[in-house]
C-alpha cells in the first residue's frame, strides 16, 4: 500500500490546522492531505520536504525556505514521539503518539519553539 510522506512535526500541525496558512492554495492542499489521512492511510517519516510541503509556497527547489528551523522542530518531534526517519506506520498510530507524547505530555511549546503559529496551537491544545 502506498504511504504518504510526512515530516515528523507535521503530525502535530495536522492536529491543529484550522484553515490558516501561507496561501489559499496551500490551505486547500492541506485540507486534501488531512482528508487522505482521515481515510486511514499510512505515513512514512521523511527527513525533509513531504506531501504537505509539496503545496507550500515556502518550498523552493525541494527545500523549505526555513529549513534549519523546521528541521530542528522535526528532530525534537521525532525524538519525543519515539519513532525514526524511514518508519512507516498507520496515520492513526502516529497521530496517537503526537497526541500522547507531545501534546498531552505538555511538550508542545518546547518541541515547536520558534514556530510563528505556536500561540494558535497552544490555544487549541486543551
Ligand atoms: S506550533 Fe507550528 S509546528 Fe507546532 S503544531 Fe503548530 S503550526 Fe505546527
Ligand atoms: S513552511 Fe516549510 S516545512 Fe512547512 S509546509 Fe512549508 S515548506 Fe514544508
Walk me through the structure:
It is a single chain. Strand 3 and strand 4 (63-64) form a beta hairpin. The chain has a three-stranded mixed β-sheet with strand order 1-2-5. It has a two-stranded antiparallel sheet with strand order 3-4. It has one domain (3-123). It is 48% helix and 12% strand. The longest helix is centred in the first third of the chain and has 15 residues, at 24-38. The model has no long low-confidence stretch (mean pLDDT 95). By secondary structure, it is of the alpha+beta class. The chain has six helices and five strands. It binds iron/sulfur cluster (2 copies).
Annotation keywords:
126 residues; alpha+beta; three-stranded mixed sheet; binds iron/sulfur cluster; 5 strands
Amino acid at each position: 500500500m502506498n504511504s504518504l510522506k510526512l515530516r515528523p512535526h507535521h503530525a502535530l500541525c495536522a492536529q491543529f490546522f484550522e484553515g490558516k496558512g501561507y496561501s489559499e492554495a496551500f490551505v486547500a492542499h492541506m485540507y486534501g492531505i488531512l482528508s487522505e489521512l482521515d481515510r486511514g492511510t499510512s505515513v512514512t517519516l521523511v527527513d525533509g520536504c513531504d506531501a504537505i510541503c509539496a503545496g507550500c509556497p515556502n518550498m523552493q527547489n525541494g527545500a523549505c525556505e526555513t529549513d534549519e528551523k523546521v528541521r530542528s522542530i522535526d528532530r525534537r518531534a521525532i525524538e519525543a514521539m519515539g519513532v525514526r526517519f524511514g518508519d512507516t506506520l498507520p496515520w492513526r498510530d502516529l497521530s496517537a503518539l503526537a497526541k500522547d507524547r507531545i501534546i498531552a505530555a505538555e511538550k508542545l511549546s518546547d518541541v515547536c519553539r520558534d514556530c510563528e503559529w505556536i500561540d494558535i496551537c497552544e490555544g487549541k491544545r486543551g
